[in-house]
Amino acid sequence: MDQLFEVAAYTEDQKNSHLILHVHVAHRAVNALSAVTTLGLMARSVLGGKKTVPLMASVLRGNAVAVLLGVAGSAAMVEMKMQDKQPIEWQDRSWRLLNNKLQNQIDVWSAGGALTGMALFGLRAGAKGHGGAFVRAVGGAGLGSIVGIAAFGAFTKAEEFGYIAELKKQVNELRSK
User: Fold this and answer.
1) Residue 125's pLDDT is what?
2) d(Cα 15, Cα 8) in Å, to the nearest integer?
3) Tell me, what DSSP letter sits at residue 12?
4) Closest Cα to residue 110, out of 43, 23, 45?
5) pLDDT tens digit string along 122-145?
6) Which stretches of the chain score pLDDT less than 70?
7) Please, what's the b/e burial string for 107-119 (b: 16 or more CB within 10 A of its CB; e: otherwise)?
């Protein structure tokens, strides 16, 4: 989120603190609900649950609901948690979020996954049994957000084990030829 909002040098100067907290909580609520929905539907499919619609249609529909509930529910959660808090407390929490490198990296990968999922599933013309374009796009965004987080985790581990540095080295060698 540090790419979306200006980060103040000092906590008390942080602008848009209410908006920053709302966006952050909505983002994480969508991630959490999408993960639970996807894992639950996949488990039900593997364990032999009743199959009235294709798995992907269920996953997209479930994720569309998860996204809508996450966005709507998060607004209430933030307001309940932060009611009666002073402006400096809003500023402090938002400033700490914007200065948290890991949170910002997860935001980038999750948002990238969400946009990719929205584009991939939302633009599928006439996909039978997968709901309308809105359901496919919103469901794809939810599914993509958790795929993005999983990709971030895989990338981080690959980087930790030195695979990324080796890959960069090989690419540079190919370019120099």
Assistant:
1) 59
2) 7
3) G
4) 23
5) 887 555 656 788 999 999 999 999
6) 49, 125-130
7) bebbbbbbebbbe
Exposed/middle/buried for residue 140 (C-beta within 10 Å: 0-12, 13-18, 19+):
buried
- The answer to whether 111 and 135 have CB atoms below 8 angstroms apart is no
Alpha helices in 1-54 (DSSP H): 17-46
Give the amino acid at 25. V
Whole-number pLDDT of residue 87: 94
End-to-end C-alpha distance for the chain, whole angstroms: 39
- Residues 6+ positions from 100 with CB-CB distance below 8 Å: none
Q: What angle do CA 74, 56, 116 make, to 5 degrees?
A: 60
Q: What is the predicted pLDDT for the residue at 127?
A: 59
User: 5, exposed or middle or buried, with CB in 10 Å at 0-12, 13-18, 19+?
Assistant: middle
Distance CA 40, CA 160 (A): 31
pLDDT at 37: 97
- At 162 the pLDDT is 92
Report the pLDDT value the prediction gives residue 52, as an integer from 0 to 100: 79
175: Cβ contacts below 8 Å, ≥ 6 apart? none
